[in-house]
């Protein structure tokens, strides 16, 4: 999850996530929802995600077109590349130069 505090020793990905998810530009909780389910998840609210891998059934989306976008510096780039490999045509992988995850 995204840390609630960072310091000079925090890993780069923690700083990147904090900069987005813990600031007004990315921190959003819909009406009638809870921050614990959106931008401030806890260990108990994350249980549903622990055994979830969204690309296991990606072939069921086909033949709808799919566009995968990732940054060339994104720590998560491998997930976009994996999804792209698993997907059937039509598909496109767009890699944004000099970009991270968020």
Features:
102 residues; alpha+beta; 2 strands; 24% helix
Q: Could you walk me through the main structural features you see in this protein, from its secondary elements to its overall organization?
A:
This protein has 102 residues and is α+β, with helices and mostly antiparallel strands. It has 2 domains: 1-50, no CATH class; 53-102, no CATH class. It is built from 3 helices and 2 strands. The protein has a two-stranded parallel sheet. Helix 3 links the parallel strand 1 (66-71) and strand 2 (91-96). It is globular.
How are the elements arranged and paired?
Blueprint: H1 12-21, H2 47-50, E1 66-71, H3 77-86, E2 91-96
Parallel strand pairs: 1-2
InterPro entries: AB_hydrolase_fold, Polyketide_trans_af380
Protein name: Alpha/beta hydrolase
Kindly summarize this structure in a few lines:
InterPro entries: AB_hydrolase_fold, Polyketide_trans_af380. With 102 residues, the chain is an alpha+beta fold.
The major pleated sheet works out as: 2 strands, parallel
The radius of gyration computed from the alpha-carbon positions, rounded to a whole number of angstroms, is 16 Å
* Strand elements, count: 2
Number of discrete helical segments: 3
Helix content: 10-25%
Give the number of domains.
Answer: 2
Main sheet: strand order: 1-2
Mean pLDDT, nearest integer?
85
| Amino- and carboxy-terminal Cα gap | 14 Å
| Element pattern in H and E | HHEHE
Low-confidence stretches: none
Shape: globular
The share of residues in extended strands comes to 5-15%
Q: Give me the secondary-structure category.
A: alpha+beta
Protein name: Alpha/beta hydrolase
InterPro entries: AB_hydrolase_fold, Polyketide_trans_af380
């Amino acid at each position: 999850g995204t840390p609630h505090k960072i310091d000079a020793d925090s890993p780069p990905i923690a700083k990147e996530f904090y900069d987005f998810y813990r600031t007004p530009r990315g921190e959003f909780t819909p009406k009638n929802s809870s921050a614990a389910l959106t931008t401030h998840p806890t260990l108990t609210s994350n249980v549903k995600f622990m055994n979830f891998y969204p690309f296991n059934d990606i072939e069921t989306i086909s033949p709808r077109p799919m566009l995968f976008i990732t940054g060339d510096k994104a720590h998560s780039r491998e997930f976009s590349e994996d999804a792209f490999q698993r997907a059937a045509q039509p598909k496109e992988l767009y890699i944004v130069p000099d970009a991270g995850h968020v």
